[in-house]
Each structure stands twice: as C-alpha cells, then as structure tokens.
Design brief:
Elements (H helix, E strand, L loop, with lengths): L2 H27 L6 H69 L6 H33 L2 H21 L1 H16 L2
Helix pairs in contact: 1-2, 1-3, 1-5, 2-3, 2-4, 2-5
C-alpha cells in the first residue's frame, strides 16, 4: 500500500467535505436555521476521519520518518510547518463548536462566528492539502530512501488493517456521501 498515494486519495474526501461545509455556511448566511445534527456529523468527520485517521497516518508514519531521517530540515518542515497547521485546523474546529454552542443558547450574533470559523477552516485546509500534495509529499519521495518509504508503506497496511476492523473508511465515506446528497445535489 502506497502511503503517499493513499494520503492524497484521502485528501480528496476531505476536500469534498469542505464543499459541504461551504454550502451549509452559505445557507446560514442566507438565513436558514443551523442544522446542529449535520454539524455534529461534519465535526465527527473532521475529528475522527480527517484528523484522527488521516492526520494520524501522516503524523505517526510519514512525518515521523521525515523527522527522524532529515534532522533539522525535517524538524523545520514538520514540527514548525505541518504540525502547526494541523493544530490550527483543530483550533478552527474548537472555535466552531464554541460558536455553535453560543447560538444554541440563544446568542444569534454568534451565527457569524459559525460561518467565520467554518469558512476559515475550509480555506486553511484547502491551502494545507495543496501544500502537502505538491510540496511535502514530493519532497518526501525525493529525500527519503526507498527502504524508509517501504517501511512507511508496510506500517500503513497495519494502520489501515486496524482501521478496517472498525470500518473507518467505509463509515466516513458513507457519511460524506449522505451530506453531499443533502447539500450538493
């Protein structure tokens, strides 16, 4: 299993969810009620698929090897680059949750914060994914020795086998498709 190819395929699912988030944000801007149940599904997808599953593979497998093998350059690229961006995405999600809670409690003005954090998250993740696909993954392929990339691929099989027992990919892709059908069809 090619780790980098799989990560890039998963990016496509994440980008599709970002389109759903943008459409829901537009609906809120147009005055529609907030569908908290759908936001719960989106946040579940973000936290457990995008962050837990996808970023888990990046951080534990590929990025760990970049850090180990490339020393200070890897540290700058990963610790001060990609991991900071992962944390920034988590911050937008936390702020989105706080905004949703305030609206639920009757703070109508916080609707703007829901939109702002949702859209900020989509912009952030689009740039982040583009950087990983075009820069980080290309750099890893060129700079890491074949045996390290092969180890990452073997570890990816183990990671995916454990996730497969839980049905992670199937569950979250199905959740994505149901939200796409509802909001983008």
């Amino acid at each position: 299993m090619d780790n980098i190819k799989l990560l890039m395929e998963e990016h496509q699912y994440i980008l599709r969810m970002l389109k759903v988030v943008r459409k829901i944000s537009l609906n809120i801007m147009d005055g529609q009620d907030i569908n908290y149940e759908d936001f719960d599904k989106i946040i579940d997808f973000i936290r457990n698929y995008s962050d837990g599953h996808h970023h888990g593979k990046e951080e534990k497998l590929l990025f760990a090897q970049i850090l180990d093998y490339l020393g200070p350059l890897g540290n700058k690229l990963i610790t001060h680059g990609m991991l900071v961006e992962h944390d920034m995405g988590r911050l937008y999600v936390q702020e989105l949750l706080s905004s949703l809670d305030r609206v639920k409690q009757g703070n109508v003005e916080s609707r703007i914060d829901v939109i702002a954090n949702a859209i900020s998250y989509t912009h952030h993740m689009e740039r982040h994914i583009n950087k990983e696909d075009l820069v980080i993954f290309t750099f890893a392929k060129k700079q890491l020795p074949t045996e390290i990339l092969e180890k990452v691929d073997i570890d990816t099989v183990d990671f995916e086998n454990a996730a497969s027992k839980k049905g992670t990919q199937e569950f979250y892709i199905s959740l994505l498709e149901s939200l796409e059908d509802k909001y983008l069809s």
